[in-house]
Amino acid sequence: MVQLGKDGSLYGQVALVTGGARGIGLAISRHLHSLGASVIVADSGVSISGEAPDPAIAEAVVQELGDRALAFSADIAVPEGAAAAVAQAVNRFGAIDIVVNNAAILQDSLIFKGRPTSWDAVVQNNLSAAYYVLSAATPHLREQVKAGRASGRIVNMTSSAALYGNFGQSAYASTKAGLLGLTRVVAMDMARSGVTCNAIAPFAATRVTDAIHPANTEQAQYKERALKISTRFVAEFVAFLCGEDARAINGQLFGVRGREVFLFSQPRPIEKLVVSGDDAGAQLPALFRERFAEKLTDLKTDLEAFNTEPVL
Ligand SMILES: NC(=O)c1ccc[n+]([C@@H]2O[C@H](COP(=O)([O-])OP(=O)(O)OC[C@H]3O[C@@H](n4cnc5c(N)ncnc54)[C@H](O)[C@@H]3O)[C@@H](O)[C@H]2O)c1
């Protein structure tokens, strides 16, 4: 039986990291590998908007990692691609223990200028891909536990854009919010097998941070601050979630921003009003003013909410 090391080592574990060849995913691939895991670097090498795939990107990372690493450069945003990535992990390394759904693309535009083709591409890459990978991987995760292997771990990379929103990110924010629903349900569906599923909203300097076009001085300041944040802190938190110490952490949402780790609340009712009789419509204006008006959520974007000096 493969045991998760108390000391944080992941020897004998097999990890599939989507988008594992660049940015945050690259840091995760490197770190899990350095802790002893075998790593499938599933990265098609596409541009930020999901174009121009390049298999050399994942292959270069696997060359760097050496033993216990495998490149998978086909698209995981189609069911056959996701299933093939999982099958390669199992065929090559004998199991799949850790799934990090990290791959994502961006195609931003204000809602009144949006194109359905962009929406479809972003949904496919950021949300459907995670579902395809998990639907292929979770039968193995369940069977492995029954066969005496240590319980698996799933980490979904979401975004503060899902929680706060940001201009022009209707598709991106919607997919990242969708991942939160997926995280909760997978956490429930897999709990009996001891497999955990958690979500992280990361903040780190990558080509995506670099590509932010500041619309005002606050955004310019946000970008300047974000570009100082190393990806390694996200990777370290992922490794923690994959370790034995995190076996009871399930269905949670975290944020990692340099040395700061946030535990996020998840939306629950914060106030209630109750209408009576048959004239609900007539009562609502006054009841709304009385119960809700002071408690509405503002329209602060995620860039505004996290525009503070990071702890590095
Ligand atoms: N960088 C940040 O501060 C930040 C903030 C919020 C959320 N995130 C999230 O963190 C994750 C990593 O972001 P990043 O900034 O490192 O991005 P990145 O663009 O640097 O890396 C993403 C990788 O995913 C790969 N990829 C995309 N679609 C794929 C597909 N269908 N199949 C295989 N590979 C695919 C790309 O080739 C790329 O190498 C993403 O989910 C992103 O939404 C990042």
List the helices and strands and how they pair.
Blueprint: E1 14-18, H1 23-34, E2 38-42, H2 56-65, E3 69-72, H3 79-93, E4 98-101, H4 116-146, E5 153-157, H5 160-164, H6 170-190, E6 196-203, H7 207-210, H8 217-226, H9 232-242, E7 253-257, E8 260-263, H10 280-291, H11 302-305
Parallel strand pairs: 1-2, 1-4, 2-3, 4-5, 5-6, 6-7
Antiparallel strand pairs: 7-8
Residues 18-19, 21-25, 42-46, 48, 50, 75-77, 102-105, 125, 129, 157, 159, 202-204, 206-209 line the site of nicotinamide-adenine-dinucleotide (NAD).
Explain the overall architecture:
- With 312 residues, the chain is an alpha/beta fold.
- Helix content is 43%, strand content 13%.
- It has an eight-stranded mixed β-sheet, sandwiched between helices.
- The model has no long low-confidence stretch (mean pLDDT 96).
- It binds nicotinamide-adenine-dinucleotide.
- The site of nicotinamide-adenine-dinucleotide has 32 residues, from helix 1, helix 4, strand 6 and helix 7.
- Nicotinamide-adenine-dinucleotide (NAD) binds next to helix 1, helix 4, strand 6 and helix 7.
Descriptive labels:
binds nicotinamide-adenine-dinucleotide; single chain; 312 residues; 13% strand; alpha/beta
Summarize the structure.
This protein has helices at residues 23-34, 56-65, 79-93, 116-146, 160-164, 170-190, 207-210, 217-226, 232-242, 280-291, 302-305, and strands spanning 14-18, 38-42, 69-72, 98-101, 153-157, 196-203, 253-257, 260-263. By secondary structure, the chain is α/β, with parallel strands linked by helices. An 8-stranded mixed beta sheet has the order 3-2-1-4-5-6-7-8, sandwiched between helices.
